[in-house]
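Model it.
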Amino acid sequence: DTTPELEVRSVLHQLGCRFARRVSLPGKPDIMMPARRSIVMVHGCFWHRHPDRKCALARLPKSRLDFWRPKLEANRLRDEKNQVELETLGWAVMVVWECQMKDLESMTRRIRRFLDK
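Modeled.
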């Protein structure tokens, strides 16, 4: 129930989508739309290591890098593994990054395109 998750759910609701939360699939997806076989994962840029080099939210801390680097890399690798597992099971997966929520109109268009596939 983070702010980005609430915003994505609001967009989906406005688009008339029915969805479920807290489902037991690989990675425990944030939002699942069973009728569309679609999943939306809402990732925090820091915790999930947003690969966009321009994303200021994905920066590493200045201290304890020996702790943070392996922890955050393990999160990233786990996310990749879960996405592959979901796609292997026949689910379409969309990842929404926290920083992308700044432009809600653009995000709504992106979600609509994902749903129209």
